Give the backbone structure.
Amino acid sequence: MKEKWEKIRKSPLFLPIVSMVLVLLINLFKDAGFFAIGINNGIISGRLIDVLNRGSEIAILAVGMTLVVAVSAGTDISVGSVMALSACGCCSLLAGYGVTSVTVLKYPMIVGMLFGVLLGAICGGFNGFLVAKLKIQPMVATLILFTAARAIGLLVNANMIVYVRYKPYSYLGNFIPGCPLPTPIFAAIAVIVIVALFLKNTAMGTFIQAVGINSRAARIAGINSTVICWSCYLVCGICAGIAGIVASSRIYSADSANIGLNYEMDAILSVALGGNSLGGGKFNLAGSIIGAYTIQAITTTLLAMGVSTDQAPVVKAIIVVLIVVIQSPIFKEWFAAHKAKKVSAGKEVAA
Amino acid sequence: MKRKVVSVLLSTAMAATMLAGCGGSAPAPAAASSEAASEAASQAAETVASAEEAASEIASEAGADAASGETISVGFAQVGHESDWRTAATKSVQDAFSAENGFDLQFVDCDNDSAAQLEAVRNFIQQDVDYIVIDPIVSTGWDTVLQECEDAGIPVIVIDRTIDDSDKYTAWVGSQFKNEGIAAGAWLKDYAAAKGIEELNILVISGTTGASAQLGRSEGFDQYVDSEGWNKLDEQTGDFTQEGGQEVMESYCKSYNGKFNVVVCQNDNEAFGAQQAMDAAGVSYGVDGDVILISFDACTAGLQQVLEGKINADFQCNPLSGPDCAKIVQSLQAGEEVQKETFMAEPWYVAESDLKSITYTNASGEEVTEDLIPVTQEIVDAAY
């Protein structure tokens, strides 16, 4: 029994899950209605569903970001801007350049969406080239698209918000008629499952860890570090592209100024909350995803509690600080030492 | 070698962003876009500039009076192009100061960079334009550069946003956001009375906290909430975006399920998001709906919704400051005194034509009666 508990406590997912539960506990004390789930107007509605729904984009981004952090000990800060670019590219292609609102599409919807994802992939490939091949620091390399991608998106959109008022376009970000769950949840699950299966069934996960821990040693061991690193950035770009399409579908438009704004920070934070070291190497995909939904749970909680908007960021910051402190190495050491002391004291008494 | 590659890449990226940011504007000074410009070159440029300045000063003094009837040069430093509203404002000024009207307009899109805006204004001073129009990105830090304008004898007209730490500008043209809020309150009072609705339970989705539009609209509307004893259930921010409005409304629909009958969104995008959330929750809104939906801004897409009866009333924030600006320039040109502050006329759009007008006490303390405009297809087509 005790051993089992020790095993659970030592699992890398323990602390991320505790953080998530902590956030949810606040609600239990404040208003248990948070957990109510009911069927309303033919759809399943409830705040937990909102968390899963609204957290989808961050979860998708967190998948790519985890790989990038693991392989290069750096972060891709361009994902938010790339989301905007992918959304703009998609809507602009579907609507035609310079058209602000359409009800009839120029190309089949799937072509536009794939084009958006392709733009994301190109951006990811570009970032990967700078980092893996030219060995530029990740933060500096991705800074380029952080500033440029959103601006390019504006150009693609001819400085406008482009609306795609074609009903099926909004299905991905809202509801498919007849389906009681919001579609973004399925999009997030699909991305997570595909990447997780890929990592599990190939040696890719091990390769990424090896490169992240010591890329030179990995190369000597016969791993092509450059390609591994590049492909992680590529995946991160594709994830950003998909997240951008989902965000665009939510509002059936491409608003280059606001789509994905500050999402890179949330993505990095979810990787950190997931118990992953931002120093690269070993990584834990599930942790990052739990981290992503924890962030969304905080936002939804604040909305539910009606925390006034000028105070919300402060409350959010306090919660994040608490979670990060609990997971910090120093605190963990102190906790372990404290526990050891207790155990030895117990033994002395017994003796 | 590696460092060189990095620096080349970075400077290309910087130049690219700048070009992207300045889409359609006057070409940025070459020295600013390339860090590679040697110091010698910039010194030379400075000498040339100061020589030009001296020359143009003489020229302008000599030709100041003779200039009437010739083209008037105007420099316009715009905030950026972040919304449809801003684009409409830019176009309005460009149209008002067109070549056909006898103006030579130099337009700089500052892409929300306040340093670039100061640079642009200083550039206008160097070129000795006749008038400078500024839509200030930030409200402070203007005293020095406005002093420079005054020293150069160039009148400055401020539009839309305000300058708080200096009064060295000639005139300001813009909206009184508080009036929009008050008008919304006045309309809601009359509308509720006309429909026989006794209890108003109001949810507000406000704009970006601290933005002048949010402060003004909240303050104005709250006057009526207080004086009429309405029940304002909650006010949270949707950051002026559709996704923000959607997320906040989604939460409201759960917290206040069936307890609200008025939703006030502080711009059209938030209203679109709120509509999506109410659709999903099965709440009916608009004309004949359970919930009265009020919005601000009145952009084309917003007015379309009013026409379809999905928004009950939309209070416009008039972006078309161009004509008022041109009027001020003409008065100054004729040597007349101009008002320091000009509030633009702002139309109030409604979905139903039962109420003809509203009477309220505006922010300046005057009692005014203004018409309510029922939206037609022509109005939607003509909107920005």
User: Anything to note?
Assistant: The two ends of chain B are 52 Å apart (CA to CA).
